[in-house]
């Protein structure tokens, strides 16, 4: 188990040091091959009938196979996350979103910011492809703000953009934080366009 854990960690760290992800046609087969080889090599690897050098070679092979598994699995997850991106053509457009408030809102100057899990998106009445999870700001603009709670389902109009952060050395990398948190677009709710559909959509996450 230690060899498996060490190899998987080494593969994941190797991937983190790359400037670009490997293509899917390479990452997925590498991960599958690593998983299969790890399972095969781990069978009876403590067999006392094997001389020490064979056991050492087998441990090294397990580490290499687990590294392929760690790198392939991490690359596949990263590719799935990056694929859930906002198309450039939809930036700054009025999109009608229907979805669920996915966390407790944060108070910001003159408004609220919250995560919104999108169920459907329409552009001029036509279905549009947007990220599953977005971060929205809802600003007072002279009116009253709603009482937002996790689990509420809303229909609203919002303008989205791809998340961007500053690249100052030693500074906070907001774009990386959004990526880690699964947020692939940010935006703001258009005033006077929102309608609450359900007071609570039951789910274990929202109940907690």
Task: Explain what this protein looks like in three dimensions.
By secondary structure, the protein is an alpha+beta fold. The chain has helices at residues 2-16, 24-42, 52-83, 174-180, 204-207; strands at residues 94-101, 106-108, 111-123, 126-127, 133-139, 153-161, 186-189, 195-198. The chain is elongated. It has a 5-stranded mixed barrel. The two termini are 34 Å apart. The protein is 37% helix and 24% strand. It has 5 helices and 8 strands, in the order H-H-H-E-E-E-E-E-E-H-E-E-H.
Q: What profile does the largest beta sheet have? A: 5 strands, mixed, barrel
Structural class: alpha+beta
What is the count of β-strands? 8
Helical stretch tally: 5
Q: DSSP strand (E) fraction?
A: 15-25%
Broad shape: elongated
Unreliable stretches covering 5 or more consecutive residues:
none
**Quaternary structure state of the chains depicted:** single chain
Estimated helix fraction = 25-40%
The helix-strand sequence is HHHEEEEEEHEEH
- Biggest sheet strand order reads 1-3-5-7-6
Distance between the first and last residues' Cα: 34 Å
Q: How large, in whole angstroms, is the Cα Rg? A: 23 Å
Look at the structure and give the mean pLDDT.
82
């Amino acid at each position: 188990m230690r060899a498996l854990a060490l190899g998987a960690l080494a593969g994941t760290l190797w991937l983190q040091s790359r400037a670009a992800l490997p293509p899917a046609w390479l990452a997925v087969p590498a991960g599958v091959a690593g998983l299969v080889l790890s399972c095969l090599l781990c069978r009876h690897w403590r067999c006392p009938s094997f001389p020490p050098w064979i056991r050492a070679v087998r441990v090294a092979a397990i580490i290499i196979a687990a590294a392929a598994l760690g790198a392939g699995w991490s690359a596949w997850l990263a590719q799935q996350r990056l694929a859930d991106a906002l198309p450039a053509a939809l930036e700054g457009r009025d999109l009608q979103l229907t979805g669920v408030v996915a966390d407790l809102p944060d108070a910001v100057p003159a408004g609220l910011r919250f995560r919104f899990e999108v169920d459907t998106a329409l552009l001029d009445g036509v279905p549009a492809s947007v990220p599953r999870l977005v971060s929205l700001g809802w600003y007072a603009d002279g009116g009253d703000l709603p009482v937002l709670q996790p689990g509420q389902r809303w229909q609203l109009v919002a303008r989205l953009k791809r998340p961007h952060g500053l690249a100052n050395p030693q500074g906070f990398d907001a774009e990386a934080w959004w990526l880690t948190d699964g947020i692939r677009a940010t935006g703001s709710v258009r005033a006077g366009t929102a309608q609450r559909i359900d007071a609570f959509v039951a789910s274990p996450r929202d109940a907690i």
